[in-house]
Amino acid sequence: ISCTPDQASYLRSVLRLSDGDEILIFNGRDGEWRARLSEVGKRGAALDAENLVRAQTGGPDLTYIFAPLKRARLDYMVQKATEMGVSRLTPVLTRHTIAERVNLERMRANAIEAAEQCGILRVPAVTEPIKLAVLLQNWDTSRVLVFCDEDAEVANPLSALAKLRPGPLAVLIGPEGGFSPDEREMIRALPHATALSLGPRIMRADTAAVAALALVNAALGDWR
User: Fold this and answer.
1) Which residues contact 56 (CB under 8 A, 6 or more apart)?
2) Which of 71, 170, 196, 221 is the least buried, fewest Cβ under 10 Å from its Cβ?
3) pTM recorded for the entire structure
4) pLDDT at position 59, please?
């Protein structure tokens, strides 16, 4: 496997690996492999995959939909969502979205880094930003949508989730300014949309992401 210049530099300059050293590698499809580093020229590198160490693992069919945040907090949120096992990251543009420009390559890099650090073999797909109205108009009704809402009728989030059937899921976190009334109405009009309360305290969007994904995984995901 030929390394990119950045990968070769990381292996040699950051990890201080030398020709013949071993490392664990994965691509998100074929499991985890033990590989041996070999030199290609003065600055290049290649990896020889020698044996399968761990079979590819799956995870919940869980899409995480979120209003983009500013740079550092978005990095954190992407990393934590990856650690929580989401399968897809979808930025959504709402009426009160603050940061509308999203660096998708930076998001992918953060997801890969989080997977590497935590030994996760699945890296979530990163999709193009989409307007909330367009997302909802084209919603797959077989996928349950859980959206965080301080005005949820059921105060206990686990009680709200207990009413849902396991299967394809999506978790939606809105912007710090909340959903507009018409956006909330559009969301609630979906056949399987469920409002989720996160308790009596107001959370920042990146904190709410971790809390909501933990609750969903515990009730309907692979934490059961």
Assistant:
1) 29, 30, 31, 121, 122
2) 71
3) 0.89
4) 86
